[in-house]
Amino acid sequence: MRLLVLGGTQFLSHAVAAEALGRGHDVTCACRGVSGEVADGAELIVWDRADDAPPDVTGTGWDAVVDVSRVPSHVRRAVAAVPDAHWVFVSTINVYPDNHLPGTPATSRLHEPITEDLDPASSPEAYGAMKVACEQIVTEGTASSMVIRPGLIVGPGDGTGRFTYWPWRLDRGGEVLAPGSPDDSVQIIDVRDLAGWIVDSAESRRTGTYDGVGEILGIGELLAQAAEGTGFDGSFTWVDQGFLGDQGVQPWSGDDGIPLWLPRPEYDGMTAHDPTPSFEAGLGVRSVADTTRDTLAWLQETPGAARTGISSEVEARVLAAWHTR
Predict the structure, then answer these.
(1) Are 126 and 111 in contact (CB under 8 A)?
(2) 180 and 102, same structural domain?
(3) Could you tell me how far CA 246 lies from the centroid of its own chain?
(4) Model pTM?
């Protein structure tokens, strides 16, 4: 298979290129080439997607294309350049506006598409709405296509550092602040599992729209599996979300945040997408313990690796306040 990866230097797109190369495919990455290196063995075509596609992109017969862009004009330009290949477009569950409701692509409504290029910081809904537009450009303009809407992608190489907080924290041991209720749902997908499924789908020319999500777990179960992956021998102290808010702790990410924690019930649906259709379409997922172990190894081997979340000092302060409330 001759595979064109639009991107290829960061996290998921890099993992897709590496997976395809490992299977013996001919892989070319088209990007600016300024955010990192492409996988060993991949060809690089330098392309700033604000410009027209270079002849090396338009003049070659690709079997499949993988794209992760969120910019409608970039996707529109690429589809016009390579309309005859099979496309696997990586979207996001942020296309769904109803974060409190679980669902599947067949049952969930979408944001109204934003077809112009906006800075997502300009509106909380801009990112998801632009992804809707990108999906439509791909499905309407290519010979055949598959759309995958991932949730939180985790694992070695994660530039967001959100899940990485937990391997780092559990490796330190001691008393760990656990957010919310153990039964609060969470969903993650290992980047390597998602990349493997993307390459499978490019090979088989799979079509349709799917959520790229793992199993629905209570956060208590996820942390128990993560503890297994790190050899954690400390303890968890569960602190309810109202108290965390009173202490200035933020959800999801950031220096004041606890990753994987989201307010309930506002986000009950965002972390409970039914994975059954994706599993039936070939998505396989490894254990949280395996992901945690490998993420910790990557973190320890990678100086400057991204990690978000509250500091040890803030965690100790919040725990002390909880015990004396």
Answers:
(1) no
(2) no
(3) 30
(4) 0.97
- Residue found by looking up tokens 């809407």 in the block: 149
Residues 251, 114 within the same domain: no
What CATH number does residue 298 fall under? 3.90.25
The Cα–Cα gap between 305 and 218 comes to: 27
Q: Domain with 34 in it: what CATH number? A: 3.40.50.720
Q: Interhelix angle for 11-22 vs 191-204, to 10°?
A: 60
- The radius of gyration computed from the CA coordinates of the chain, to the nearest angstrom, equals 20
68-122 confidence digits (pLDDT tens): 999 999 999 999 999 999 999 999 999 999 999 988 899 999 999 999 999 887 7
Strands (E), the chain: 2-6, 26-31, 43-46, 64-67, 86-90, 144-150, 152-154, 175-179, 185-186, 188-190, 208-212, 217-218, 235-239, 250-251, 257-258
| 114 belongs to a structural domain | yes
Structural domain harbouring 66: 2-150
Structure tokens at 177: 């602040």
